[in-house]
Amino acid sequence: MMKRSVVAIAISLLLGMCSAQAVEIYNKDGNKLDLNDRIKVSHVISDNSENSGDASSNIQGGFIGETKITNKLTGYGTWSYQFSLRDSEGSDAQNGNATRLGFAGLKYDTWGSVDYGRNFGLIYDVMANTDMLPYFGSDSDYNDVFLAGRSSGLLTWRNNGFFNLVKGLNIAAQYEGKNDRSGSDNGVTRSNGDGFALSASYTFDSGISFGGAYASLDRTEAQNSFVHGKGNNAQNWATTVKYDANQIYLAAVYGETLNATPISGGFANKANVFEAVAQYQFINGWRPSLAYISSRGKDIENIGDADILKYAALGTYYYFNKNMSLFAEYRLNLLKDNNPLNVATDNILAAGLAYQF
């Protein structure tokens, strides 16, 4: 009996390592403040020299604050910033530094929460299920591109438990105002007009969950001037199924975009996305990972159908404890040379170390 209890505690600890860590630094009179930070160092090896080197070593840090206003009303705020560790002390010192998140809001009883600021687009509610790879992944949820990843100017309403009536049923709605970034590098691609998104998910006690999300936003005039991707609207929908229990993690995502997936020369008129991840958490700290990621463009002007990305990834985490982890991953590119979109076809090996609290 004692041995089984120890095993259960170990499993709970190791599974908890995969979630974000935070340190509580203040909790008094209904006011609470947690700090979180992660230092990740990594190195990439590839046949393509442009993809080799220390490309993504960084520090990500910030806080989560909460204040109790009344018995039913709570205020909260979140801020997160990323600092690059690969830059010199010269003119390139600002490259790779960016605000990741920054929003504030109110939560009222069973009605849910409403917040505004830089946050995750609701399409990421689905894509997050396969964004679990040790190094790669997150290829289809572009940041600042039509609510697929992190975006600015988001008004978000969330309700977990469906007004406290249906356990496991979570719903959300989101509005994004126009963001014109045409004055920066790749800014036209990352611009957007007004739009909205919806998401819903249901989790069973067995660890199985299903989810879906949809987004539709206006496109800017500059975006319609591209060679590829025409239309007044950009749309994105995605569905997911996940199993997360008994040390096993399995997840798959299938979705489709219209005038919303960036490619060389603009956007794909249509793209089909499929992602799948399988992982197992050993009690000794190892967590091997196997994944398949693909995005295929359809009806691209002067090209037709073409792969945007397609690869398999084999990797692993090793958790020394809840704060320190080692990771490595090999990405086997499944694209061939001379593909229509001139996408890189090199295989890549990445490895690194992360400390978080």
Descriptive report:
With 357 residues, this protein is mainly beta. The chain has one domain: Porin. It has two helices and 17 strands. It has a 16-stranded antiparallel β-barrel. A hairpin with an 8-residue loop joins β7 (150-160) and β8 (169-176). The longest helix has 15 residues, at 2-16. It is globular. The model is unreliable at 1-19 (pLDDT under 50).
Summarize the topology.
Blueprint: H1 2-16, E1 23-28, E2 31-46, E3 58-68, E4 73-84, E5 98-108, E6 112-120, H2 124-127, E7 150-160, E8 169-176, E9 195-203, E10 208-218, E11 233-245, E12 248-263, E13 266-280, E14 286-300, E15 304-319, E16 324-333, E17 348-356
Antiparallel strand pairs: 1-2, 2-3, 2-17, 3-4, 4-5, 5-6, 6-7, 7-8, 8-9, 9-10, 10-11, 11-12, 12-13, 13-14, 14-15, 15-16, 16-17
What tags apply to this protein structure?
Gram_neg_porin_domain; disordered N terminus; Porin; Porin_dom_sf; mainly beta; 16-stranded antiparallel barrel; 357 residues; Porin OmpC; signal
